[in-house]
Amino acid sequence: MHDVTYLLITGLSVEQRRRHERELLAYYLDALRAAGVRDVPDLDTTFLEYRRAAVWGVYIGWLTTPIDNYGWDVTVMNHIRLLTAYRDLESASAVASLP
């Protein structure tokens, strides 16, 4: 889920992500099934894990990445996208709901 979440959040504009994230997650699940993956979770479960995985993207993906790796513009844009998604997706409460 980390890779899929990271790709959707950093690869799309905030507006595109907001508009298409559920549709893209559903497409991903369908692709898994088509590839023969068993026990593919339902969309609601996947969306919850997506919300949780946004935390990983913020911290590991970018807060610990030196600006020199990608330059100022890419680093700032990804911070904006990741932190906006973190807020939009209420990731803190999704993580807090873990048993």
Question: Gist?
Answer:
The chain is mostly helical and 99 residues long.
Mean pLDDT: 94
* Main sheet: strands, sense, barrel: none
- Between the first and last Cα atoms, what is the distance in angstroms? 19 Å
H-E string: HHHHHH
Descriptive overview:
The chain is built from six helices and no strands. The longest helix is centred in the N-terminal third of the chain and has 21 residues, at 14-34. The protein has one domain (2-96). It starts with a helix and ends with a helix. The chain has 99 residues and is an all-alpha fold. Helix 1 packs across helix 3 and helix 3 (43-63) runs antiparallel to helix 5 (72-88). The model has no long low-confidence stretch (mean pLDDT 94). 80% of the residues lie in helices and 0% in strands.
List the helices and strands and how they pair.
Elements: H1 2-11, H2 14-34, H3 43-63, H4 67-70, H5 72-88, H6 91-96
Helix pairs in contact: 1-3, 3-5
What are the defining features of this structure?
99 residues; mainly alpha; globular
